[in-house]
Specification:
Elements lengths: L2 H19 L4 E2 L2 H8 L4 H8 L9 E3 L4 H14 L3 E4 L16 E4 L6 E5 L4 E5 L4 H9 L3 E2 L13 H6 L7 H4 L2 H4 E8 L3 E4 L12 H5 L9 E7 L1 E2 L3 E9 L2 H13 L6 E5 L1 H11 L6 E9 L1 H17 L3 E4 L1 H8 L16 E4 L2 E4 L3 H13 L8 E9 L3 E10 L6 H21 L18 H5 L3 H11 L17
Parallel strand pairs: 2-4, 3-4
Antiparallel strand pairs: 1-2, 5-6, 6-10, 7-11, 8-9, 8-10, 12-14, 12-15, 13-14, 13-18, 16-19, 17-19, 18-19
Helix pairs in contact: 1-4, 10-12, 14-15
The structure holds flavin-adenine dinucleotide (FAD).
């Protein structure tokens, strides 16, 4: 389309959107449109480093209520233009890139806490509420939504937690965002607000709730959610263990989880990642390092800590006391702090995956080999920690790095994508799911067909039934362009 046609259409669109939200909450300014596209993906950081433009929307709109979001979706449906929701822009998968233009739907104005029900321990919020906002209000009552992602201070919103199936640092005990949500409201084409059932556990048919959770805006913008609250724990214990190998640590973690203990935090660092962590914490360790935090009622914490310690020692772990785990807890956001997190031109990717305990040792070995040997000519390195545990398995938060990256950004991008191909291949071949908590976005869309196999056409049919024009966050989650 010529620039003049695109500009005029953006003008028309903005005019209609202004009628809904007020002109001051819309924009066609290029800088603002670009800001809406930017997230924390490596691709986004690379483009910013080289002053390249990310794919951006034609118009930005900032609705102030669920009804306004629905009206925006109605306008988008009328014009058959894309809608790209944005919460805090802390995503790492390019989910906010507007590959096909359209409307950038900024939900940050929708940050009200609607209702706090202390007897049921649930809180209803608008989708744009952030973790720190919740912490400030609920903390005063001794309560919390126990979801603290590493991006806690990067603006991540409740809508974004749910859209990308996020995990917080205490997910092993308190669950992922998908376990903490009771109900949500979503705006569907051609512009209607739909609520899921009031509670998630029932026998009234399949769960619409979990269809929307993880849909990354491809089935509609989430406008509000009711989340479970938990009390701020009365006591915490900190345990640190060193294991000769990461496999001993994995066995200890497996026993802890299958014996149905529930530490709030359990993080096992392989030798390479432990090295990095040692530098950040300023403490020397050797071998594989496990930091554990138990929280809750003092008597339960004491008992749980004792039982966990017994298992770790039984598997050959050396008990290092509380300092390592306490220092980790106090500095838990440090590894992500500005200046400490890696940045382009270094090529890196967090290829986190999740599988059963039985599959994890081989998956980990194979991925490390594929990255380090397969990309030896580039000096690729691999680090891993295991940080979100389940009754049946564990997630590995693993990363590749190439420090000596090609100067040309497109060559760098191509090498980045090849590293991803190699890493994801291993996850798929070893029973892993291609992502555990960062989501899919544009980064991993190409693997979704293979991930789902014969179930992929079912996913596509569900998408088509809800969004027949394909306008909801097109090009994400493996779904194609708008129709
Ligand atoms: C340093 C760092 C550490 C991180 N650590 C963690 C971690 O520990 N755990 C974790 O889970 N994630 C982590 N992340 C990833 C990211 O913070 C999460 O995915 C977060 O949940 C995204 O929320 P957001 O509001 O910023 O979403 P955005 O980045 O704005 O959007 C992410 C995706 O969700 C869609 N979306 C956003 N809001 C809505 C909505 N209301 N309705 C429908 N779709 C929507 C967007 O279209 C996009 O596709 C980390 C990121 C960084 C930069």
């Amino acid at each position: 389309m010529s620039d003049s046609r695109a500009e005029y259409r953006a003008h028309l669109l903005r005019h209609e959107l202004s009628e809904i939200v007020g002109a001051e909450h819309t924009s066609v300014n290029k800088g603002e449109r670009q800001d809406q596209a930017i997230d924390w993906s490596w691709m986004s950081q690379l483009y910013q480093l080289h002053d390249l433009e990310l794919p951006m929307a034609d118009v930005v709109v900032r609705p102030g209520s669920a009804e306004e979001v629905a009206a925006v979706v109605a306008v988008a449906s009328d014009h058959r233009v894309p809608v790209v929701p944005r919460g805090g822009g802390s995503g790492t998968q390019g989910g906010t890139f507007a590959l096909y233009g359209g409307i950038a739907l900024d939900l940050s104005r929708m940050d009200s806490i609607i209702d706090i029900d202390e007897s049921s321990m649930v809180v209803k919020v608008e989708a744009g509420v952030t973790g720190p906002q919740l912490e400030e209000v609920l903390g005063r009552r001794g309560l919390a939504v126990a979801h603290e992602p590493g991006s806690f201070h990067f603006g991540a919103t409740v809508g974004g937690w749910l859209a990308a199936r996020g995990s917080g640092v205490r997910s092993t005990k308190y669950g992922k965002s998908e376990d903490q949500v009771l109900q949500l409201e979503v705006a569907l084409p051609p512009g209607e607000l739909v609520s899921t059932l009031p509670v998630p556990n029932h026998a009234a048919g399949p769960g619409l709730l979990q269809l929307v959770v993880g849909s990354e805006g491809t089935l509609g913008p989430i406008t509000s959610a009711t989340m479970r609250m938990d009390p701020i724990p009365e006591s915490m214990s900190f345990l640190t263990f060193e294991f000769e190998t990461v496999f001993d640590g994995l066995e200890a973690g497996r026993r802890i989880m299958t014996e149905r203990l529930r530490p709030a935090v359990m993080r096992l660092y392989d030798e390479a990642d432990r090295e990095k962590l040692s530098k950040i914490l300023g403490i020397e360790f050797s071998g594989a390092l496990m930091v554990i935090v138990c929280d809750g009622d003092q008597r339960l914490v004491d008992l749980e800590s004792e039982m966990i310690s017994e298992i770790c020692v039984d598997v050959g772990g050396a008990d290092l006391g509380e300092t390592g785990a306490k220092t980790w807890w106090d500095g838990r956001y440090e590894p992500y702090a500005m200046g400490k997190a890696p940045r382009p031109p270094t090529i890196f990717g967090t290829t986190d995956t999740v599988c059963t305990f039985a599959d994890m040792p081989d998956l980990y070995r194979a991925k490390r080999k594929n990255v380090e040997e397969g990309f030896a000519e580039y000096g690729a390195t691999y680090t891993a920690h295991f940080s979100h545990w389940y009754p049946w398995g564990v997630m590995v938060y693993d990363r590749f790095y190439v420090h000596d990256a090609p100067e040309d950004p497109m060559e760098s991008l191509a090498l980045h994508d090849r590293l991803w191909d190699a890493a994801i291949r291993v996850s798929l071949e070893h029973g892993g799911v291609i992502n555990e908590h960062h989501g899919i976005g544009v980064k991993l869309g190409r693997f979704m067909r293979e991930q789902y196999g014969t179930a992929w056409p079912v996913m596509q049919r569900i998408k088509d039934a809800i969004d027949p024009d394909g306008i909801l966050n097109p090009g994400k989650l493996g779904f194609g362009p708008p129709r």
